[in-house]
Amino acid sequence: MQFQHHAMGVCLACIILTSSVAFSASIPRNALPPTTDLDLITILDNGANNPMEGNEWLSDIASSIVSNLTGIRTQDESVQSTREKIENLFAYGHLNIPEAASMVASSGLVSSEILSFLNGFLNQSLNSIHNENQASSNIDIYPLKSEADAPYSVREDDLRAAIHIPNSFSYGKNGKKPLILVPGTAIPAGTTYHFNFAKFGNAVPTADVVWVNIPGSSFSDAQVNAEYVAYAIHYISSISNANVAMLSWSQGGLNVQWALKYWPSTRSVVDDFIAMSPDFHGTIARALVCPLLETVICTPSIWQQGWDTNFMQTIREDGGDSAYVPTTTIYSTFDEIVQPMIGDNASAIIRDIRGVGVTNNHLQSICPGKPAGGVYTHEGTLYNPLAWALAIDAFTHDGPGQPDRVNMEAACEQFLAPQLELDDILGTHGLLLVAVAGLLVYMPKTTAEPKIAAYALD
């Protein structure tokens, strides 16, 4: 059966490519069915009623989320009242993903319409890792584009099938340039960007938006996740005969940076790298650092994103903490997942020792006391008006996004990007519910950080 956007298969694979469902009626590893009756509520409910040993804490949170989602109604709030609710929820302290999701559910910050969309995320073609992207004899990018590149460990067919190309994609025609969206931890790319940057073409008509559905919802080894990014850069650039721009969220920033570092041939075809809430230096938030974090939540990539892990030390060394292409970072003090996100030691900051052009944009410093400089969470940057203005500026100019080219009065005085609506705020925060579902089903959890790839040790 062929789905819209050239996607085949089932989105369950987006979360558990090499996993089994952690419930009594489990699906054998690597034996995923072509269709599934599982949905967001079912996963959360099963997690609440069938806790595995040691995850009673996560089970209790899942139970609370399900209880709070029962009977929700159509959202009739305004952007202003939603802003006030978000400020009350996230202005104090830092949380882990399940606790943040529980707060979102208990606050009524998800409407019935949004929940209906999120509930079916497993079966949405926009999240498929089985897309029918044709191989081309004219594309010489695998197994190596350049002798300087790291080797791939993933089959080319799988790398290519993870790229979602919408029907609207123009393949470089009409002066358009591809924008490749790279997801963060725990949420498939299609769902991640549905309420925000998948709509970037409405703001910039010359942008051709595509995205990479990294298997395992980016829970697996970040070094392997980066292979999908490196391949996507070359594949999309080649079929479009054009350079590309990259836009990432969260761990996606690390995946792009790792790809640029260890697949240096990618740098010549990437014009811009726009990183939303990146953790280039990991996080020191105790609630998100393994092994301090409950072992039931420790997945390979979550483990790797602690500030002092082997992975973080490896990506930072030899100038890896500095940009390889023009880079725009956008981050918020109130990030509930990555910390610190303020001052000279903010995790999102990237250096510019190569002189390629970098701007590090702290929302609260640029728009102090203004709506756009208010309480924006890890996911909230995805609908922030200044973030959108800077992304637009970066995409439409040479070099990184520059605040002095942006209409700061207009950007700072708004709470929501003008290209978006109230439902986009609600849906973006609803992503946390999908993240909890991903944590419940991803198997196996890990008790140690993955080994550094041999190519990064040379």
Short structural summary:
The protein is of the alpha/beta class and 458 residues long.
Name its key features.
seven-stranded mixed β-sheet; 9 strands; 458 residues; two-stranded antiparallel sheet; alpha/beta; Rossmann fold; 17 helices
Q: Strands of the largest sheet, in order across it?
A: 3-5-4-6-7-8-9
> What is the total number of structural domains?
1
Largest sheet: 7 strands, mixed
Low-confidence stretches: 1-35
- The end-to-end span amounts to 45 Å
| Individual helix count | 17
Oligomer: single chain
CATH fold-type name: Rossmann fold
CATH architecture: 3-Layer(aba) Sandwich
Helix/sheet category: alpha/beta
Overall radius of gyration: 20 Å
Average predicted confidence as pLDDT:
89
Beta strand count = 9
- The proportion of strand residues reads 5-15%
Helix content: 25-40%
Principal-axes geometry comes out as globular
H and E order: EHHHHHHEHEEHHEHEHEHHEEHHHH
CATH class type: Alpha Beta
Protein name: Lipase
Organism: Aspergillus nanangensis
Signal peptide: 1-22
InterPro entries: AB_hydrolase_fold, Stereospecific_Lipase
Characterization of the model:
The protein is an alpha/beta fold and 458 residues long. The protein is built from 17 helices and nine strands. It has a single domain, classed as Alpha/Beta hydrolase fold, catalytic domain (Rossmann fold, 3-Layer(aba) Sandwich), CATH 3.40.50.1820. The protein is globular, with a radius of gyration of 20 Å. The protein has a seven-stranded mixed sheet with strand order 3-5-4-6-7-8-9, sandwiched between helices. Helix 11 links the parallel strand 6 (244-249) and strand 7. It is 34% helix and 9% strand. The N and C termini lie far apart (45 Å).
